[in-house]
């Protein structure tokens, strides 16, 4: 019989325990499905395979705890900082994709950022700064799922088919100078800000996403990363990140988007 997954209370998340000990039944509650933008692969048979994948990606990870084949905690180094990876692999015979997603939701709801793909996920420590999780996700071909910070109501329109169309709209409003399209999903628009604080870039970052859930997680990652105070203009499946609040307000008014603002350090701890 398949098990219904649920993570234990946050204090137990710090313990090195077996895969079965990390979950408890949820009774008849419906599962929280895996987010659509989480890749369906790679699929691994054991935590050792995840460790091996990190090493192939140039991040050798020394195993410090391994209570079972499905779990392992290992340490690596990212930018001179020691990083611990708490790995959980769930057997595809016993657990469905949505059961894995339900377990991940438990961790996220407790204020934890998770790296996920296929049938596995990783809790990366330090967890409060998402850049470590992002590096691990990049190495493993996974995505980063931040805690579900509350967001304001975001309009469905305007919706742009491409990031280029978003840049066109800003250009037409006189809010994009010297645009640079990086790929189909990313572009930069130069702003008219005077030279000043070097920590405040004189361009806005434009992104387009495949789904609203992916957009929302991107917004939450900006919050988690402490890349703010900053203003993010958003609607549909796109975001435009600004350093200057006045410039962001002009963009929101011109495009009809919502403003997301977050003061650094005000998010829940993880």
Automatic annotation (TrEMBL):
User: Residue span of the signal peptide, if any?
Assistant: 1-22
- Keywords in alphabetical order: Signal
Its domain of life reads Bacteria
Keyword match Signal: yes
**Protein name, entry field:** Secreted protein
Source organism of this protein record: Streptomyces filamentosus
């Amino acid at each position: 019989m398949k098990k219904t997954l649920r993570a234990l209370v946050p204090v137990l998340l710090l313990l090195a325990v077996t895969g079965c000990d990390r979950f408890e039944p949820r009774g008849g509650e419906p599962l929280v499905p895996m987010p659509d933008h989480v890749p369906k692969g790679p699929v691994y048979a054991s935590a050792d395979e995840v460790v091996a994948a990190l090493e192939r990606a140039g991040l050798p990870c020394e195993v410090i705890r391994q209570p079972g084949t499905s779990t392992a905690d290992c340490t690596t180094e990212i930018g001179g900082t020691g990083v611990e990876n708490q790995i959980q692999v769930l057997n595809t015979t016993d657990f469905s994709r949505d059961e894995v997603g339900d377990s991940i939701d438990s961790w996220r709801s407790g204020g934890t950022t998770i790296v996920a793909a296929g049938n596995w996920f990783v809790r990366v420590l330090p967890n409060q700064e998402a850049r470590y999780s992002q590096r691990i996700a990049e190495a493993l071909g996974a995505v980063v799922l931040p805690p579900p910070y509350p967001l304001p109501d975001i309009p469905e329109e305007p919706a742009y088919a491409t990031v280029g169309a978003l840049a066109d709209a800003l250009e037409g409003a006189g809010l994009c100078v010297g645009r640079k399209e990086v790929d189909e999903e990313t572009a930069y628009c130069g702003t008219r800000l005077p030279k000043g604080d070097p920590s405040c870039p004189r361009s806005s970052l434009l992104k387009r996403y495949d789904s609203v859930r992916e957009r929302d997680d991107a917004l939450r990652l900006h919050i988690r990363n402490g890349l703010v105070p900053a203003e993010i203009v958003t609607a549909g499946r796109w975001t435009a990140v600004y350093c200057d609040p006045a410039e962001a307000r002009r963009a929101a008014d011109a495009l009809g988007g919502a403003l997301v603002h977050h003061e650094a350090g005000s998010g829940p701890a993880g």
